[in-house]
């Protein structure tokens, strides 16, 4: 995927004046002829214990490496291939991070122009990266390497005319899966999707719809269930075909990526989510027995007349399957998105491979729900079914209510309303969960099932309480993890499920301002420090600096640190944003303090802007001592 590059020419120059833990080289191993395909190797040489982040396996947080190939000899180029990155939990970004270290070789293929004359040429490679170790990160830089190319005389050779497919080249992506590996990936992803929370809100609707038709004799139960499954499977297949059709013949990686995000666009569309939220609130109130809409008599008669035809039954079950698949997109996108990347490759092979994967995924994903649609009446024939079915109906009502909250925060975020930020959504989830616990323990009643005497809390209700509290544990942990409201070190699957249900956490800037920091406002902070007659604490930081995040999230909130911070005006300056102001602050750090790495801390005398103390790197054990030293120096000179 082609990234947007921002270049810091001043930093690139000054960075070289300090420690230089990385170098770049490029090479083309064999001579070629005009019109042929050549492979370019770009090697990033890193000193021991330094690393850069992956190109493709990225998450919100670490700055991905990017690579651009160009030159007058090139008529067409393909995506860059990276080796399999290392991965480890990054406490700074609080997520699994993928990175390269040591000597890392990236490869890509380019087609030479047919009009080239024999001779020597150069192909350039710009690699944009941020290099870090366990203590510090340097600002992101762009380095250029040139590969020498020898063009021989002669016509282009047949075996040098075709690009090697990503299926053959890329050993790190889903694209390199064999058919069996892709099959297992699709099956495993579908099974995992069974337990995703986005699938539950539709279950009571399935039971209600198919329970009604199970009593009718005019249509085959198996055929109706099959049409329901076809709606689920067909939605996934059609999505893959649409992406493949739009991408066919497209070589631009950015355009391919936009098509591959089709499933995500559906899952995040504000109007779709608003509609689903309203619908699920309606279903919740209906399951609670709080509303009971009686349609006009003529509409009931017409509906019964239409409903007696098998065609309408098949039609309804099919579109119920489509609705179920679309509703589940919020949780199935991580797996479906990988298959859509195949579809967006722009080749017939990619489309066929994606079609196979989407079909397998859709069929396996649909199995339990088609099974439920086949035998809904079995539930009603179990002992005391009326009583516990009423209880289940209320439980599903709470699930519908939680689902509505999940869908409603999407338009709130999209339209920037600020009504449902992350902490409010967490509070609402806790309220819904505790209301369900109170219901199961018999503190209040909803509906009609509890009118049966004597009412008692049985074992199944205690099990329900236990399961609800287990589900609430990560929700409550996140709620207690202000200001980001993201609980640290949750199991990876739990963390991924939580993030699919919640709006993104507050940005670092929002958190800092809420805690009284000046952000990217040097003159404002300096004026405030002069007005109050106290020193100015400057945090030179970066949005992609992992060690900065660890210090800011783990060390700054400590009581002994906050006590010292109360005696200073606090200023946070970002040096790696793509803005003129950020470049100005990066230049300030280098010119005044002769260091280019982050994190870097300065305690400043606001009267003459002299330094009372400087310290860089990840220093959790030395930080309080550093603050005390700066405050002591201030007491001497003020």
Average pLDDT for all residues: 78
| Unreliable runs | 1-18, 165-177, 250-261, 302-309, 343-347
Query: Tell me about the biggest sheet?
Result: 5 strands, mixed
Percent of residues in beta strands: 15-25%
Helix content: 40-55%
Total number of helices: 23
Compute the number of strand runs. Answer: 16
- The global form is flat
* Order of adjacent strands in the largest pleated sheet: 12-14-13-15-16
Structural class: alpha+beta
The number of distinct structural domains comes to 4
| Rg over CA atoms | 30 Å
What's the N-to-C terminus distance? Answer: 54 Å
Structure, described:
With 638 residues, this protein is an alpha+beta fold. It folds into four domains: 9-159, Sandwich (Immunoglobulin-like); 178-381, no CATH class; 386-506, no CATH class; 508-637, Glutaredoxin. 50% of the residues lie in helices and 16% in strands. It is built from 23 helices and 16 strands. The chain has helices at residues 9-15, 166-169, 179-194, 203-214, 221-247, 253-260, 262-268, 270-287, 297-307, 310-327, 329-343, 348-374, 376-380, 385-414, 422-440, 459-479, 492-501, 508-514, 522-532, 546-555, 559-565, 580-593, 623-637; strands at residues 22-27, 32-33, 37-46, 51-53, 66-70, 74-77, 86-90, 95-101, 103-112, 119-129, 141-152, 518-519, 536-541, 569-574, 600-605, 610-616. The chain has a five-stranded mixed sheet, sandwiched between helices. A four-stranded antiparallel sheet has the order 1-3-9-6, with no helix packed on it. It has a four-stranded mixed sheet with strand order 2-11-10-5. Strand 7 and strand 8 form a beta hairpin. The longest helix is centred in the middle third of the chain and has 30 residues, at 385-414. The chain is flat. Residues 1-18, 165-177, 250-261, 302-309 and 343-347 have low confidence and may be disordered.
